[in-house]
């Protein structure tokens, strides 16, 4: 699983091996982003071919599935 951010978080040190193996900072360099995620599945705002994201639906999904997602991301048993 990779996490991609358009701008680095000041609290993260990208030089740490664990961080750099999980999180990739791409800025607005779409060709770098496209090495990890093809433009055919990305919205236009990320240099892709799909329509823009509906962040309200994404927010609702994350909010409604917080416990399940936390357990998955933290590797906790269900």
How does this structure look, described?
- There is one protein chain.
- This protein is mostly helical.
- It has a domain at 1-37.
- 37% of the residues lie in helices and 8% in strands.
- The protein has a two-stranded parallel ribbon with strand order 1-2.
- The protein starts with a strand and ends with a helix.
Secondary structure layout plus pairing:
Layout: E1 3-5, H1 17-22, E2 23-25, H2 30-33, H3 55-64, H4 66-74
Parallel strand pairs: 1-2
In short:
The protein is mostly helical and 78 residues long. It contains 4 helices and 2 strands; from the N terminus they run βαβααα.
List keywords for this structure.
78 residues, mainly alpha, two-stranded parallel ribbon, 4 helices, 2 strands, flat, CRAL-TRIO_dom_sf
How are strands sequenced across the largest beta sheet? Answer: 1-2
Which class do the helix and strand fractions yield? mainly alpha
Q: What is the subunit arrangement here?
A: single chain
Q: How many whole angstroms does the radius of gyration measure?
A: 15 Å
Instruction: Pick out the low-confidence regions.
Output: none
Beta-strand content: 5-15%
Tell me the number of helical segments per DSSP (H or I, 4 or more residues long).
4
Number-wise, the strands total: 2
């Amino acid at each position: 699983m990779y996490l991609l951010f358009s701008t680095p978080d000041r609290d993260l040190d990208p030089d740490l091996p664990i961080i750099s193996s999980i999180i990739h900072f791409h800025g607005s360099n779409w060709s770098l982003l496209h090495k990890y995620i093809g433009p055919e599945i990305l919205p236009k705002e990320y240099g892709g071919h799909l329509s823009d994201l509906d962040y309200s639906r994404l927010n609702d999904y994350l909010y409604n599935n917080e416990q399940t997602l936390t357990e998955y991301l933290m590797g906790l048993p269900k």
